[in-house]
From TrEMBL, chains A, B:
Name used for this protein in its record: Glutathione S-transferase
Domain of life: Bacteria
Record-level GO BP terms: glutathione metabolic process
Species per Swiss-Prot/TrEMBL record: Microvirga makkahensis
Domain GST C-terminal: 93-234
GST N-terminal domain residues: 1-84
CDD domains, per database record: GST_C_Sigma_like (cd03192), GST_N_Sigma_like (cd03039)
């Protein structure tokens, strides 16, 4: 039975981390909120499910509903060989993913530092301040951590964990793509000091299923409605 | 062999969610950074570990180091009967914990909406705006979600998951304690609409091991150095 995947139908957002895993796995899935009536169905499930998601994305596998991006990837990773079978290595993969989630939340807050209920324009002064901090301190700090993990991987620097692709590699690819869209100048500078991260991004983009996905209409373009938004005044 | 737990020695912070689980489990642990030289050891481990933590807290169990609060609790929950054995219920518990983590991050950002590298006083104007949003929209939204989960639990509304205590219950207790310290007026109002959450908080506080812990010197007081800070101007 196909997975039903639920997320806002017009943005990559947090859902994209799950879409990339489903695509790389070659999993049978429906991007359910992109079907007609899909958003209404999604909203009803959030309201009425026995285990209600706090927010999209969420995945329905038979009767099981799983929300929280990192938890969905934990679930999919074990089923589709996108995480090590060894429990310690599996938990390490998950820990890397949770750090990616923290990074993504900070990237979001660069344009919404005050309130998700307000427009960017209503918090632009604060966004300018927060973005400067993000560019100068946070992007380098996070990328340095990923670079260290890659460089320190005893199986070689091609993957974050072990010697095979994991969902964490896919997610790091997506973060670097998003940062490069939102903060092209700052990200280019930071990547110059993170060659393993830059190489991982390129390697993921070349994987046949990912390459086909990125070229397909299933890949929604980046935009100023998503998590990674390009406001030139926030880059520098 | 005792667990070695590492976190900043003078604040509750994110480490407190782990301390509460260790205490309720009656686990043998050392709060390692509170020993002499402990912080220096913690910093060296973050620098040199094969799997370096991005930030404290982290737990050392023999040769395994686990960071990220929710990942540590996932690990401890399975070993100390603080989570259901059933995989679907275990993943649901983790999902609740990840939503608590999101809530905690938002609580932190009320006093640091711009940069962790700046003092509160240097971002107070932004903190006033962000806290108003947090009080008016976010505290009610999160507490309503926890209230719904408790009310909808088929095993009764005493626990978030199933009919026994989980680490998620301990963490929700800590969040409500923290919010009540930081935003006493706003939290009192919100709890009036979340009777199951209020009852869970009281029930956790009465558990013998938690009660003994809270009365001990091991429980660090709340303060304006932690995640939950009481700045009266941010409450209302």
């Amino acid at each position: 039975m196909a997975y039903e995947f639920y997320y806002w139908p017009t943005i990559q957002g947090r859902g994209e981390f799950v879409r990339l895993a489903l695509e790389e796995a070659g999993a049978d899935y429906i991007d359910a909120a992109r079907e007609s009536e899909g958003v209404a169905v999604m909203m009803r499930m959030m309201e009425h499910a026995a285990h209600p998601p706090f927010a999209p994305p969420f995945l329905k596998d038979g009767e099981t509903i799983i929300a929280q991006t990192a938890a969905i990837l934990l679930y999919l990773g074990a089923r589709h060989d996108l995480a090590p079978k060894d429990p310690v290595a599996g938990l390490w993969t998950h820990q890397v993913q949770l750090t990616i989630a923290d990074f993504v939340a900070e990237a979001h807050d660069t344009h919404h530092p005050i309130a998700v209920s307000l427009y960017y324009e209503d918090q632009k002064a604060e966004a300018l301040r927060r973005s400067a901090e993000f560019r100068q301190n946070r992007i380098p700090k996070f990328l340095d951590w990923f670079e260290t993990i890659l460089a320190r991987n005893p199986s070689g620097g091609a993957h974050l964990v072990g010697n095979g692709l994991t969902y964490a590699d896919l997610s790091l690819f997506q973060v670097v793509e998003g940062l490069s869209y939102a903060f092209p100048k700052a990200t280019k500078r930071a990547l110059a000091d993170a060659p393993h991260v830059a190489a991982l991004r390129e390697a993921v983009a070349r994987r046949p299923r990912i390459k086909a996905y990125l070229a397909s209409p299933r890949r929604i373009p980046f935009s100023e409605d998503g998590i990674f938004r390009h406001y030139p005044e926030l880059d520098g």
